């Protein structure tokens, strides 16, 4: 019974260790820390209670945190009262983190509330009692409460109170445990070292581990002390600890709390080395960051509890904690606290031979061959080895085959008198506290006492550190903490658990559970006995002082002396002063000599072999060669001849085979089957089930309530008595009445005490597929009835999810609670499952849902099925290389969009006003391809993200963000269906129509502003002050003429072009509104329908406008007619395409075929439209329509019914082709616009050059004319000069 009690598992009782904020009036915040809020303001009034947080307090970017130090435990539970204030929006959650685990994430959107409690006057608040459980073994825990609210505290907030933390404690004296340990298991763990456990920053001591390439000073985040920390430790930082002279142990456990800070990547790993070997490695990136940083609001950080257990035997070892971070401290860093090192020691009496134990027979009885886990002789044995008796004392007879001694009885005569026969044996007085005695000498003491070898008395084992009923001290390493067998803390210890010091005073460090004062390091050797000012004056015994150094006198074979007294056994490995402390080659040390031991796997001179066991027929027994069973002739333990009948020669030995129908060797029977209860099991006799007495596999008597039939004990079904193996017994053998003919409860029946059966419909586990979104697939777990738990556990941990024939490393499954199962509370339980598969090898993976805990309805009827299967869609997964290619194509697409926008705007400025409208009208068709209801691969999903730039709706939304700035224009979200729901399209037409209103109001404002500006200019130029400035008047007149020219261009054709550009979005909004649900009890429904009919009227008016001249087409050139009515046919196409997308959204095949047919017919129309005037427009249309037709036609590979015929890689290849088609359209449009831009620039340049040339020519003609006039004038002057000279000569001649 004692053994059974010792091996009992750890109990599940819980203990309250921390409680806060439970009073009606709160005095303080109990040293909690709060993010982004003043702690002095967090206590508010909510009804008659004061709470933490509340109205106008906790909202966006705010959290409440607490670090708590806990006693040894293996599980914890948290409960609190949560206040939800105001009506939370969709997808807003309250979250609780416990260290690295997100233990609670529940959506509280859409709650109506119960009362006006916390200050809100328009909306009611709701109160929830929540709780959560998780496995936890850390020395401390970090609690983090927050929410995903995105609004201010005046709009939505939360608060809490009645916070309680329970733990499931380890058994007494256990310093660490798990929920799988027995009490005996956890008692073997011993604390070797403990550092950095103080919660108070002022008392935190940094001595202990050495830090290389990091800051040695203590750091803190939210006043939580750590070594290392943000931006002070990271890349190349190493934490070192050297452990010396550890007790004998078999395992080591290292526990710590690791603060991961910054943008760690999957390639960044945490690593731990012990004795040069890697014993633990993890990326630590699978744990989510806290919603808001604790080291700073925008930092990425999380506390992670790390628990490493590994085999370890060395008494001296070095432990390293490193990482392979590759970025600077500012990007990637870490902090550490709560580092504890445990070792697992051996226990004598656990039937396991470990370390220095020679044997372990599970008891403390002497004279049975093993006592105190050391070999001993049996009673009467004088010489023994390895529990085998080899000789007896006088008066004992040696039994050769039993290896034991029998007491000899000498009878002096053959006649024994009646008095002699019944003479009572001599009685001796009882020995205090002794259990077994012999001839007034105690051999075994009672529990709680130990035999004193000097006095032969039983002393209280308080002095031996063993617990009695009134004592607390147990282990030898607690001797310093044990006073009068009561545990107390050691000197200079601030905090201890069960006598084990956890935290020391300042200027003291913790080592081997003691607090030692931090002293200046002594430069003398450890062997120095007297050291003054770092100079050694005297060495310890066994050492000699030479030149200021202590050298060994003996044992190291290099000592300066060769003394005879220094010599030890030749097989001694460690010898000091003639005393041998360890031997070579696994030899055992006995009486200062190294001797060999049979069973140590080392063959000594006196041994033939040594296989380390005592199996008799395995070739080596008692370190002598032996033959196997069934072998007659063997050599060196190897069989050389044929085996006996029933034996088979295998692995150089004769062995039997169970199941060959031949009884041989140690086999008792052979029935050639593996049935356990048929009389023979594994070739050994076995009793039938429920048999009370059996001999050699044959049952003679069955248990009560069972009858013997053909050597089987069967219960008597139908006798009205409930027996073992029966679920019910209603006194008959009729099925259909709740109890079947085999006495099993039938489905949908409940039997009270096995007899009174009532029909109750059993609840059923239901698994439903919801949707696939990108690489994620979503499923729902629910039940056909409201159900409850009958055990107080976290039911989410009882849901086991797996994918058939797929390794768990290739997928990740996340369970999200919608409504969790509660203890003895009937609820409509529901969970959402998110599945991400990292491979494309599976066609249709099968998800297995298995429940390990039963649920019951209100009539205590159990689930009819606890396992279900669900077929998922084909995984939508891309490799990293494919993602990079898709993103590159997406970038090309975005650059093309922006380039086309820029070129079109420039062309509008330069005079080409139709370029932007035409481009938008054509390319918007691409953005609507994503609504085809097929499952696109990830490549196309990534590409379609860039198509948001095309949509007129998205373009207008990017210009003016009404949802953030215009509170009057906020509209409720009306959920769509199928692909529209996937892209979160709001089916409320008022949401999209506001952008169109903004567009037309903007255009109207520009038009009215132009008219007003023209009027102002005409008034200003006629004013009298400007009459004296003719140049200014001429400038105003010239600008007025240009403005008047532009205003005249704004006519019905401009409005018509604008409506055509917006027609895609207008028609789509109207069709989606028609297909949506309408609640006619709400006035908004009539507003939405009115807007819808207005849009349809405008569209119908556009059609009528385009139909003008349709009946007179015979009077025109046919090609010219087709080209002029292109807008009419394009509008008809838009209506057809949008109608097919909206109304055939659930008809995948028909939707794709109709869209391909529409695009194909329109492509034929565009090709047959021949015009020489607008060749560029025709080429653009042909490229666009050809790409659309090929795209919609190729989507057949994405049909659900054809998925099983196409490999996913083939679908990816098709998607690359489809992306090329769409991108080629963008590139061609960009080239055409670039060509127009270049031609327009060339035309402008040519006009400027012609104007300058003309001006130069006129200037040259003017200059030429001026030169002619000057030449004529010069000729006239010349003639006049000649005539004057002639006249002068004539007059001279006359005078002479």
From TrEMBL:
The chain crosses the membrane at residues 898-920, 1054-1074, 1086-1105, 1126-1144, 1150-1169, 1181-1202, 1208-1232. Keywords: Disulfide bond, Membrane, Repeat, Signal, Transmembrane, Transmembrane helix. The keyword Disulfide bond applies. Coiled coil: none annotated. It comes from the Eukaryota. InterPro entries: Growth_fac_rcpt_cys_sf, Myxo_disulph_rpt. The keyword Secreted does not apply. Pfam families: DUF4215. NCBIfam families: myxo_disulf_rpt. This is TNFR-Cys domain-containing protein.
């Amino acid at each position: 019974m004692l053994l059974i009690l010792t091996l009992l598992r750890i109990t599940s009782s819980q203990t309250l260790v921390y409680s806060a904020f439970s009073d009606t009036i709160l005095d303080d915040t109990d040293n909690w820390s709060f993010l982004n809020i003043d702690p002095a303001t967090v206590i508010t009034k909510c009804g008659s209670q004061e709470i933490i947080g509340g109205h106008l307090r906790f909202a966006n970017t705010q959290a409440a945190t607490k670090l708590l130090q806990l006693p040894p435990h293996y599980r914890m539970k948290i409960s609190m009262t949560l206040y939800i204030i105001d009506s939370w929006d969709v997808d807003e959650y309250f979250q609780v983190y416990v260290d690295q685990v997100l233990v609670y994430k529940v959506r509280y959107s859409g709650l109506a509330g119960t009362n006006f409690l916390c200050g809100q006057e328009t909306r009611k608040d709701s109160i929830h009692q929540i709780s959560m459980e998780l496995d936890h073994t850390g020395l401390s825990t970090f609690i983090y409460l927050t929410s995903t609210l995105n609004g201010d505290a005046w709009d939505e907030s939360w608060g809490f109170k009645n916070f309680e933390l329970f733990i499931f404690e380890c058994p007494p004296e256990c310093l660490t445990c798990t929920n799988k340990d027995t009490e005996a298991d956890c008692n073997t763990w011993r604390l070797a070292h403990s550092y950095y456990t103080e919660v108070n920053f002022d008392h935190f001591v940094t001595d202990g581990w050495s830090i290389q390439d990091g800051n040695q000073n203590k750091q803190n985040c939210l006043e939580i002390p750590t070594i290392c920390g943000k931006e002070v430790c990271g890349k190349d930082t190493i934490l070192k600890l050297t452990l010396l002279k550890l007790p004998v142990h078999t395992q080591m456990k290292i526990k710590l709390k690791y603060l991961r800070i910054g943008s760690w990547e999957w390639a960044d790993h945490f690593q731990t080395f012990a004795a040069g070997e890697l014993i633990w490695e993890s990326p630590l990136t699978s744990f989510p960051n806290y919603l808001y940083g604790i080291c700073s609001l925008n930092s990425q950080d999380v506390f992670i509890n790390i628990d490493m257990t590994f085999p370890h035997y060395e008494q001296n070892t070095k432990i390293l904690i490193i990482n392979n971070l590759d970025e600077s401290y500012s990007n990637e860093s870490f902090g550490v606290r709560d580092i504890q090192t445990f070792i697992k020691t051996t226990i004598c009496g656990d039937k396991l031979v470990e370390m220095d134990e020679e044997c372990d027979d599970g008891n403390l009885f002497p004279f049975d061959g093993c006592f105190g886990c050391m070999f001993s002789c049996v009673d009467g044995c004088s010489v023994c080895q390895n529990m085998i008796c080899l000789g007896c004392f006088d008066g004992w007879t040696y039994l050769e085959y039993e290896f034991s001694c029998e007491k000899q009885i000498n009878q002096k005569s053959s006649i024994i008198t009646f008095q002699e026969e019944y003479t009572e044996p001599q009685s001796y007085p009882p020995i205090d506290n002794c259990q077994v005695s012999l001839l007034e000498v105690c051999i075994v003491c009672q529990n709680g006492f130990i035999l004193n070898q000097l006095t032969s008395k039983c002393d209280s084992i308080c002095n031996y550190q063993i617990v009695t009923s009134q004592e607390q001290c147990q282990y030898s390493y607690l001797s310093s903490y044990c006073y009068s067998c009561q545990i107390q803390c050691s000197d200079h210890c601030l905090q201890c658990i069960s006598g084990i010091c956890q935290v020391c005073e300042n200027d003291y460090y913790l080592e081997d559970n003691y607090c030692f004062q931090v002293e200046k390091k002594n430069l003398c050797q450890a062997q120095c006995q007297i050291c003054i000012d770092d100079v050694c004056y005297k060495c310890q015994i066994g050492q000699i002082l030479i030149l200021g150094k202590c050298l060994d006198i003996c044992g190291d074979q290099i000592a300066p002396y060769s003394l005879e007294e220094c010599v030890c056994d030749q097989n001694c490995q460690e010898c000091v002063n003639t005393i041998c402390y360890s031997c070579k080659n696994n030899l055992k040390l006995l009486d200062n000599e190294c001797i060999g031991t049979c069973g140590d796997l080392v063959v000594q001179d006196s041994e033939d072999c040594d296989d380390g066991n005592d199996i008799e027929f395995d070739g080596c027994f008692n370190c002598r060669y032996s033959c196997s069973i069934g072998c007659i002739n063997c050599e060196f333990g190897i069989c050389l001849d044929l085996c006996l009948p029933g034996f088979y020669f295998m692995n150089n030995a004769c062995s039997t085979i169970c199941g060959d129908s031949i009884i041989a060797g140690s086999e008792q029977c052979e029935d050639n089957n593996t049935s356990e209860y048929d009389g023979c099991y594994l070739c050994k006799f076995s009793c039938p089930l429920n048999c009370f007495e059996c001999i050699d596999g044959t049952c003679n008597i069955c248990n009560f309530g069972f009858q013997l039939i053909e050597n089987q004990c069967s219960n008597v079904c139908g006798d009205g008595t409930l027996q073992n193996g029966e679920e019910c017994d209603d006194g008959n053998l009729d099925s259909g009445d709740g109890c079947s003919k085999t006495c099993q409860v039938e489905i949908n029946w409940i039997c009270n005490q096995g007899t009174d059966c009532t029909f109750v419909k059993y609840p059923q586990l239901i698994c439903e597929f919801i949707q696939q979104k990108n690489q994620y697939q979503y499923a729902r777990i629910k039940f056909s009835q409201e159900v409850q738990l009958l055990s107080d556990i976290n039911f989410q941990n009882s849901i086991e999810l797996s994918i058939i024939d797929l390794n768990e490393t290739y997928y990740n499954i996340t369970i999200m609670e919608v409504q969790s199962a509660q203890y003895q509370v009937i609820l409509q339980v529901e969970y959402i499952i998110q599945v991400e598969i990292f491979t494309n090898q599976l066609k249709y993976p099968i998800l297995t849902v298995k429940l390990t805990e039963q649920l019951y309805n209100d009539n205590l009827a159990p689930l009819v099925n606890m396992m279900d299967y669900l077929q998922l869609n084909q995984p939508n997964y891309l490799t990293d290389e494919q993602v990079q290619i898709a993103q590159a194509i997406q970038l090309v697409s975005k650059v093309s969009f922006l380039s086309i926008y820029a070129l079109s705007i420039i062309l509008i400025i330069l005079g080409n006003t139709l370029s932007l409208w035409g481009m938008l009208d054509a390319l918007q068709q691409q953005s609507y391809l994503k609504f085809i209801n097929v499952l696109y691969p990830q490549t196309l999903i990534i590409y379609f993200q860039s198509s948001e730039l095309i949509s007129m709706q998205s373009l207008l939304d990017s210009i003016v963000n009404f949802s953030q700035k215009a509170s009057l224009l906020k509209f409720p979200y009306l959920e769509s269906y199928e692909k529209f729901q996937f892209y979160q399209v709001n089916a409320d037409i008022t949401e999209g129509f506001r952008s169109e209103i903004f567009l037309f109001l903007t255009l109207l404002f520009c038009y009215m502003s132009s008219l007003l500006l023209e009027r102002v200019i005409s008034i200003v130029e006629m004013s009298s002050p400007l009459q004296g400035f003719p140049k200014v008047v001429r400038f105003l007149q010239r600008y007025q003429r240009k403005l008047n020219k532009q205003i005249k261009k704004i006519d019905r054709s401009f409005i018509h072009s604008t409506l055509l550009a917006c027609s895609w979005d207008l028609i789509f909004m109207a069709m989606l509104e028609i297909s949506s649900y309408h609640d006619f009890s709400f006035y908004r429904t009539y507003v939405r329908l009115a807007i819808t009919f207005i849009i349809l009227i405008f569209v119908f008016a556009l059609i009528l406008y385009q139909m003008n001249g349709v009946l007179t087409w015979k009077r025109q050139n046919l090609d010219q007619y087709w080209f002029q009515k292109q807008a009419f046919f394009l509008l008809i196409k838009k209506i057809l395409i949008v109608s097919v997308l909206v109304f055939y959204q659930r008809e995948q095949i028909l939707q794709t075929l109709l869209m391909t047919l529409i695009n194909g017919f329109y492509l034929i129309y565009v090709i047959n439209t021949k015009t020489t005037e607008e060749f560029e427009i025709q080429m653009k249309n042909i490229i666009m329509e050809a790409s659309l037709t090929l795209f919609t036609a190729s989507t057949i590979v994405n049909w659900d019914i054809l998925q099983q015929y196409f490999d996913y890689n083939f679908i990816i290849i098709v998607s690359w082709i489809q992306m090329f088609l769409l991108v080629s359209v963008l590139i061609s449009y960009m080239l055409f616009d670039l060509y127009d831009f270049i031609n327009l620039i060339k035309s402008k340049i040519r006009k400027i050059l012609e104007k300058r040339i003309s001006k130069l020519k006129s200037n040259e003609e003017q200059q030429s004319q001026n030169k002619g006039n000057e030449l004529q004038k010069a000729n006239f002057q010349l003639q006049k000069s000649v005539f004057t000279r002639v006249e002068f000569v004539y007059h001279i001649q006359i005078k002479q």
